[in-house]
Design goal:
Length: 201
């Protein structure tokens, strides 16, 4: 009797076909993995140029100066300073945070919407993956986007003299909107969780 209980329920053809359509998302996640590869390549190119610039390589210095120059500005830095190094490092951190966002979408999305990965007991299983669902994934994505927005805002503030007041206000306002959106998502999920727990009791 237990053997029959452990057997998966057989679906009729139409529900089985509809449920199987979730595998159409697989190419999307594979595409995000390729995007991750591009970010890894970009990270190492930027890091190589930063190290080369620190050692006095002219080509690396020129690339770094143009990379940190404000778009539309006619002034380009002429020497490597602490501010320029900080801007390049913030750019590297930005790449890492976007890469983390990609991992959350790839792993969490596949686990939630496509198929179980059966990572229980694996020493490298992400802590958040054990209780991941669509709500948790949305909240974590919102927090990751806030982190990325913070990096961009910090880069703007470091270069504040090169931006006009409208640009600074606009970027700050966008960041505040991201914060409020994340708080709204977290609050909505909290209400949903409390409601579900009360309905069980």
């Amino acid at each position: 009797m237990n053997e029959h209980q452990n057997e998966p329920k057989r679906l009729s053809p139409i529900p089985a076909f509809i449920f199987m359509s979730r595998w159409l998302q697989l190419p999307l996640y594979l595409g995000l993995i390729l995007a991750q590869c591009v970010y890894v390549f970009h990270f190492w190119v930027e890091l190589k140029d930063l190290i080369g610039a620190a050692m006095g390589n002219e080509a690396s210095l020129e690339h770094i100066f143009h990379a940190v120059a404000v778009p539309g500005s006619t002034s380009v830095p002429t020497k490597l300073t602490e501010t320029i190094i900080m801007l390049v490092v913030l750019g590297l951190i930005d790449v890492v945070m976007i890469s983390n966002l990609l991992i959350m979408v790839i792993v969490g999305g596949y686990e939630t919407f496509v198929s179980r990965m059966h990572l229980e007991g694996h020493p490298d299983q992400p802590e958040w993956l054990s209780h991941v669902n669509a709500s948790v994934l949305k909240t974590k994505l919102a927090m990751a986007i806030i982190g990325i927005s913070s990096i961009h805002l910090l880069k703007t503030f470091i270069n504040a003299s090169a931006f006009d007041e409208k640009t600074l206000i606009a970027q700050t306002s966008i960041h505040v909107v991201f914060l409020l959106s994340a708080m709204a998502i977290a609050y909505t999920d909290r209400i949903t969780t409390v409601t579900q727990n009360e309905s069980k009791h």
